[in-house]
Give the backbone structure.
Amino acid sequence: MKRLQQPAIQAADTVQACVAGISIAGRAQALTDALPTIQRCEAEYLELGPPGQLYRILPSQGVTPAIDAELMGVIYKNHFLRPGSPSRALYDRIRMAPEFGFCPMCGHRNVATVDHYLPQSRFPTLNLTPANLIPACSDCNKRKLATVAARAEDQTLHPYFDDLGNERWLIADIQPSTPPTVSFDVRAARAWDEVLTARVRNHFAVMGLAELYVAQTSSELADMSYGLEIIGATAGPVGIRQHLDAQFRSCQARDANSWKTALYEGLLNSDWFCEEGYGLIRNRHPANQVPIVLHLP
């Protein structure tokens, strides 16, 4: 997960922008009247978010007697994110916040939408709360769906509130085989407690990051194989290690715990891979794949 700065806008901003774009007078007035309730729920969210206790917020059927969950969904879809609406600029500011456009939930795919951390169908009072709106790729958005955590350990990570630190925690291990076998292991950082460790495990499972890393690492090894064979033929294991070290440092500079950083560090530290394993990537039976397993503590 990639940490993001919390949006510098509040629910009052999004509600007022939506009201400005609603031509149905009764609906606009109902949303205006609902603002105090929305702000109270926003205050609770901002209080419980930093300590990782959003699971304590109770679902509701609506915002006010005049705005149920279905109508709040219509307001979000038809007014807040509608192209050309007065509020669309606020939606786009949230969606475009991640550096290089990478989804903060998986750290790899491109942002394509905005996800409600607490789902809008169950928490309509938070539909327009910026702290509850997370830029995400389509896959992460779909995987999360409308699940609601019952315990702190069951929560996925929140990019605005959760900080995993800069200590290396995603590790890759290289095992001798033809082709090489790569396994990813999440090693709990010293600053993590048991709850955060459990949440990292849950986040990886819900977002399907193990499968994502399988596909990406297989492709990365295939792409580098020919170049490594050329380096190995001219500069030997020393040249291989120098090349991998440069790749590792470049990846680490951008993200200390990306799958690429872990992969290149694992390859760099494997004497077997630097001496002979690099030449076995392409020497595979057609039925073979690069097997990758993600182990979590």
